[in-house]
Amino acid sequence: MPAPPAPTLQENQMALRPRALAAAAAAALVLPLLGSPAAAAPASAAHSGGPARANCAPFTSQVAATEGAPADQRIAGTLCTPRGTRATTVQLLVHGGTYDRDYWTVRGRTGGPSYVEAAAGAGHATLAFDRLGTGASSAPHSSRFSDTTHELVTLQLIRTLRDRGYRKVVLVGHSFGATLARMLVAKNPGAVDGLVLTGEGAPPNLAAFEEMFHLYVAAGQHPLLARRGLDDGYLALRTGAKASWFYDPRTTEPHVLLRDELTTEPGVYPTDPAYGDISLNQRIRVPVLVVVGQGDKLICGGQGTDCSSPATLKAAAAPLYGPEARLETVLVPATGHSLNVHRTAPTWYAYAQDWTKRRVDGGR
C-alpha cells in the first residue's frame, strides 16, 4: 500500500489538535465500549503473552538502517517454535502501520488462536518483530531512514534466520508491512521461499487512501505517543480512526477494538510517492498468497478491487503477478482492513498454514 506522505507545515497546523481535545475524543470512543459486557474482558483475552502451542523467547538483532551504515540499531522481536517438533520453515511476520509485533498475537475472537499459535500448531516457527521506530525496537531520528530502510532491516533478519538453520523462510506482511515485503521480494530474488500479503497485494482504492491520509498527525502531537519524544518525521493515526478504517463492526469484539485504539504505534514511511510500484510484482519468483477482507475500505470499491466474490478478487489481483507466483487469493467475509483483529481471523490463518505446507514445505 502507498505510505502516508510527510505532511507540510500548513497541513500539520490544520490537522493537529490541542492535546486536551484529542484526549476528549479518545474518551468519547472509550466510554461507550467500556459500557458493553465484552469490554470488561481482560487484555489477555485479546493478546496472548505466550502462545500455548509454542515455545517463545525474546529475540534481538543489531541491524544497519541504511546500506553501508554501522549495525547500531536494535530490533526487538519474539521467536516462537512449535512444541514437540523442530521446525525447518520459519515465517517472518511484518506488521503494518499503527501496529507493532503484537498484531500477530492478538486474538480477534476470544478463545480463538492468534496467528502465531496457528502457525505453531501447523509445525511452523515464527519471528514477529517490531519494525524500526516502533515497539521496543530502536527509534532513530527520522533523518536516518531512507525509502528502503524497512526492506534492508527485514533482509538482514532473513539472513539471520538462515544462519540459524531455517531452510525455508516465508515473509508474511500486513498492509504497509506487506508493501515492503513485496518490494523486498521483487528486488531480491531468492531471499525468501514464499510471500503472504494481507490487506494488500490487490489493486488499492486510492481515493480511500487519500481520505485516510488526512487523519495522520506528527507522533509528537499524539496524546498516546508524545512521551516518546519522537521528531516530526514520525507519523501516527489519530485515536478513533482505526474503528472507521480498519474494522468491520459485524465481526468486531469491542474489547479488542478498545485495546487497539489505546495502543497505537508511530511510523516512518517512504517519501517517494512511487514506493510500492505494482509493476515490480512481475519480478516476484516465489509463490504468493493474497488475503483481503471483504470490507477492506482501502482495497475494495472505487477504482480499487471488486471484492464481491472470491472470483472477482482473484481476477483483479492476477494481472499483477507472473506465472511463477502461482497466485492464490483468499477473500474473508465481513472483515475489515486489519484482518487479525476480527473474529473471522482463524479462517485465513488455517488457509495460510495449509498454503505454506503445499507451496513452501513441499507437502511434507
Write the layout of secondary structure elements.
Elements: H1 9-15, H2 19-34, E1 54-63, E2 73-82, E3 89-94, H3 115-121, E4 125-129, H4 149-163, E5 168-174, H5 176-187, E6 194-198, H6 206-213, E7 216-218, E8 235-237, H7 241-245, H8 254-261, E9 288-293, H9 310-317, E10 328-332, H10 345-360
Parallel strand pairs: 3-4, 3-5, 5-6, 6-9, 9-10
Antiparallel strand pairs: 1-2, 2-4, 7-8
Helix pairs in contact: 2-8, 4-5
Brief summary:
The protein is α/β, with parallel strands linked by helices and 364 residues long. It is built from ten helices and ten strands. The chain is globular.
Question: Which keywords apply here?
Answer:
alpha/beta, globular, two-stranded antiparallel ribbon, 28% helix, 8-stranded mixed β-sheet, 364 residues
Please describe what this structure looks like.
The chain has 364 residues and is of the alpha/beta class. Helices cover 28% and strands 16% of the residues. It is built from ten helices and ten strands. Strands 1-2-4-3-5-6-9-10 form an eight-stranded mixed sheet, with helices on both faces. A two-stranded antiparallel ribbon has the order 7-8. α2 runs antiparallel to α8 and α4 crosses α5.
